[in-house]
Amino acid sequence: MTKTNRVLFLCTGNYYRSRYAEEIFNHRVGLEGLAWLSFSRAVAETLSPANVGPISPYTLEALQASGIAPGGAARYPVLCTLDDFAKAELVVALKDAEHRPMIEQRFAGVAHRVQYWDVDDIEYLDSATALAKIDEQVGLLIGSLQIRDR
C-alpha cells in the first residue's frame, strides 16, 4: 500500500481561498491517481464572526460551476495547530504579505516550511480572478508533484 502524502493549505480564515485550494487539489489528484491529499486551516488566532456558514459562497459557486461536489462543504473553518504542520509534507499559504507575519508569529519553529503564493483576499481581488489564480497555482503544484513522485 502506498503512503498518501498531504498538503496543508493556509489562509487567514479557512473560509474562502484555502478551502477552494483544498477542494480543487483533491479533485485533481483524484483524477490523476496521485497519492496526495490536502487539507486546509486558518492561520488567524481566532475565526471571523463575519464569515457566514461553513464555507464561502464564492468557493461553493466556483466548485459547482466546475462540476465539483466539495467533500468538505459542511465542515466549518478550523484554526491551524502545530499538529497540522506535522501531518503535512508540504505547506502552502495563499498570500505571502498577509500570511507570513501571522505564521512567523504563531508558528515560528516551522515557519521555514511554508511556501507562499500571491492570491489576494476578496476585498482586494474579485473572486473570479482570485480563484483562477488558485486553479493555476494548484495545477503547477500538481505538475511538480508528478515530476517529484516519478
Task: Explain what the structure shows.
This protein has 150 residues and is an alpha/beta fold. The chain has a single domain, classed as Rossmann fold (3-Layer(aba) Sandwich), CATH 3.40.50. 42% of the residues lie in helices and 14% in strands. It is built from five helices and four strands; from the N terminus they run βαβααβαβα. The protein has a four-stranded parallel sheet. Strand 1, helix 1 and strand 2 form a beta-alpha-beta unit. Helix 1 packs across helix 5. The two termini are 17 Å apart. The relative contact order is 0.22. The model has no long low-confidence stretch (mean pLDDT 94).
Outline of the structure:
By secondary structure, the protein is of the alpha/beta class.
Question: What would the average pLDDT be, to the nearest integer?
Answer: 94
CATH architectural name? 3-Layer(aba) Sandwich
Q: What is the SS-derived class?
A: alpha/beta
Helix content percent band = 40-55%
Q: What is the overall number of helices?
A: 5
Task: Identify low-pLDDT runs.
Answer: none
Radius of gyration: 14 Å
Order of helices and strands: EHEHHEHEH
CATH fold title? Rossmann fold
Strand arrangement within the widest β-sheet reads 2-1-3-4
Question: For this structure, what is the CATH class?
Answer: Alpha Beta
Number of strands: 4
Ends apart, CA distance between termini: 17 Å
Annotated CATH homologous superfamily: Response regulator
Total number of distinct structural domains: 1
Overall spatial form: globular
Major sheet details: 4 strands, parallel
Strand content: 5-15%
